Queue: 2 jobs
Job 1
Amino acid sequence: MTAPTDLTSAGATPPPRAVTRFLERARTLGLDPEVRTFPAGTRTAADAAAAIGCDVAAIVKSLVFIADGRAVLALTSGANRADEAALAAAIGASSLRKADADEVRTATGYAIGGTPPFGHDTPLPVACDRDLTALDEVWAAAGTPSTVFPLTPAQLLTATGARVAVFGT
Ligand code: 5CA
């Protein structure tokens, strides 16, 4: 196991630009995330849970979908799959599909595997898997596929303005 680096500690290596951008935007929302870097990678929920040493259910997957032609974000527990029909119903969309890698970057300003739940280039409508809201602490991507940060579900909901829904299976 590789030891994590705390990017918010004095003397730490300068973070990648995507992380700096994420942190600046988080601070405008009143948050000050403690970003952890895992050189072995946190690209998937399973990778992130293994690196952090937490339950995969506590990983926030920030999944971008195109719903009726516009990007939406589905914050999904790492233990769940986002059911597209249930998600479409929850947000009132008549058509819904997964965004491709270019669409994710265009909509959020971040790459797949590093997309954070907030701090995007332009605000997106957000739905949050109800299973995440039952936990004390969850972990989300901080802008790159090797950075994560912890937060409470209450902070996640406040920062994103998410609608809580049941769409994880
Ligand atoms: N850093 C981790 C945990 S915080 C993370 O970002 N996980 S994630 O689930 O939010 O991002 C990875 C997700 O991106 C995958 O679950 C998958 O749904 C999606 N994905 C991966 N490759 C592609 C691709 N080529 N096109 C569209 N979506 C993709």
Job 2
Amino acid sequence: MTKTLRILGLESSCDDTAAAVVSSQGQRVMSSVVYTQTDIHADFGGVVPEIAARAHAEKLDYCVEAALAEAKVNLANIDAIAVTSGPGLIGGVLAGVMCARGLAAGQNIPLIGVNHLAGHALTPRMTDDLPFPYLMLLVSGGHCQFLLVQALDKFTRLGGTIDDAPGEAFDKIARLLALPQPGGPAVETTARDGDPKAISLPRPLLNRPGCDMSFSGLKTAVLRARDQIIAQDGGLPKAKRANLCASFQTAVADVLKEKTKRALAKAAEITGNTVPLAVAGGVAANTEIRTSLNLVSDSFVAPPLRFCTDNAAMIAWAGLELFQAGLTDPENLIARPRWPLDKISPTMLGSGKKGAKA
Ligand code: KG4
Ligand code: ZN
């Protein structure tokens, strides 16, 4: 019988401090603790790297203790430590790497540096046993890319945003329309009372071949439409605000749907077969976007939201898979601000408010 492996994972690359324990057998995720920093950055309109790094350094120990307690294990029951060692905001990544190095050295167990994007990309294997190959669409406030996932170390980026990430666009639209942050859920709720055809918005880059996307023009178009309404009506009536939200949301869903179709075709061309579609990232919570993605693939996998957004279970899981493949790191593991998963495709121009991640 194979030994049950338990991995402790740490995540601190952006604005969530997280720790989790996963097991190679049974329920897999034994615990997943996330301490979000949203409140401490709220007054600044974005993540402040120095504040984030300090908060990670303060909270990591508590998250580790809580994750061990929730899993009902102690460090002596852990076989290896996995940690996000990039890409991300360097202060936060460093805090996580240093904590993991200390824990691994103290327990004399292996250390595994995990690429944050690989953590997201491998999540459907943890939640749904999805076999390779598959297409992963990562859509959050910081990421937006299509990855063809063929093996633990074989990721091909088929396209991505050339400016804002979709979550970032939702957040900016919310700000333009005086809705609360995070913008995604607020825009989605408001859109329910709106007419998606009321305001004509562009579908950026659809007239260009390939799978690259752009969302910043859409934001400018919403700003113009809003200003026009204000000039005409002397304010922004509730019904028109709902129309703006609905029209924007449908525009994003249309772009993602069409580009996903193309990415799936490209993936089939590369692998010689139709591949399943999986999604991760906070924007995957959006019902209209989920529904439209579901339409383009017969096998669509959307992991539970708590594993789609930033968490440490995905890092522990990726660490487990790497550990099983014999891929551990030396005890002087370093933090990497940039770490493209796909070493061949050119670097993206932009990828979100939380810093270019790949
Ligand atoms: O994955 P995530 O928790 O954090 C990172 O960005 O890494 O994603 C957060 C993003 C935010 O921009 C938020 O507005 C967006 O996901 N989001 C949504 C929805 N829920 C969260 N966007 C659209 N519709 C939603 N229901
Ligand atoms: Zn992430």
